[in-house]
Amino acid sequence: MRRIIMMCLLLGLPGYAMAAQSDCRAAIKTPFGLVALYDADAMNWLENSNQFGKLCEKEALSAACAARVLAPQTRMIELRETPGGKPAGSIMVVYAPANGLSAAYISPLSHVQYFKPDDYDPDWGDVHFHQTFIAREGDWFRLALPGGEFGWAERKGANVKYLEKGDYVSLSTHAYMVLEVRAKTLLIRDEQEGEACSSGGDRFVLKPYEPRELSLYPIYDEGCHLRLRYTYPGAC
């Protein structure tokens, strides 16, 4: 009993908490990457809400036609324990005209959990509907899933994004510009007022700054989801 109590006390100490949380981040093989959960060929279905008049013109804009062309479609992303290995659940992506994209993780025990992808913006779904991956083998990506789970997904032809030099990102309430992407760290600086959207005759002058290096620990949460967000998902 004393051993159990002592172990519980030790796990509550900062050093032990960090060690418990560090396992997944220490296992990241391909850092700073996000892969699209949408299928490009299915994105056109979302436009049916803007094309309703044309699509249902021959049917006098009937309710039956509306129900058909505005009905949500789903695509499944099968998950594996290893690339091409045993099943490990799936991700259901819903394409709903007028309502955009949504996603749900279906566990191996068939538990369904809806979630927002790590890179998500409802107004820019074709650009920002991506999930963190921590390893990649060709077209196979090891995705960080809800609840601290992981699964390999084959995403042939899917859009893949990596953080790059010059990206404007935010972490918590702070905005930064990426100066350099290193093996497992980022060199960043504070974003300066007006620099990202400067245009016209007003030339932006960069003020002196102090670079900072970020390790994987503030960049990823304990479930290995990227915590950085793109500051300007669309445009200025």
- The share of residues in extended strands comes to 25-35%
Count of runs of 4 or more consecutive helical residues: 5
Structural class: alpha+beta
Unreliable spans are 1-22
Question: How would you describe what is shown here?
Answer:
Strand 8 and strand 9 form a beta hairpin. The protein is 16% helix and 33% strand. It has five helices and 15 strands. The protein has helices at residues 2-11, 14-26, 52-55, 63-69, 216-219; strands spanning 33-36, 73-80, 87-96, 100-106, 112-115, 119-120, 129-137, 140-144, 150-154, 160-162, 168-171, 174-181, 186-190, 212-214, 229-230.
Write the layout of secondary structure elements.
Layout: H1 2-11, H2 14-26, E1 33-36, H3 52-55, H4 63-69, E2 73-80, E3 87-96, E4 100-106, E5 112-115, E6 119-120, E7 129-137, E8 140-144, E9 150-154, E10 160-162, E11 168-171, E12 174-181, E13 186-190, E14 212-214, H5 216-219, E15 229-230
What's this entry about, in short?
This protein has 236 residues and is of the alpha+beta class.
Give descriptors for this structure.
flat; alpha+beta; 15 strands; single chain; 236 residues; five-stranded antiparallel sheet; ten-stranded antiparallel sheet
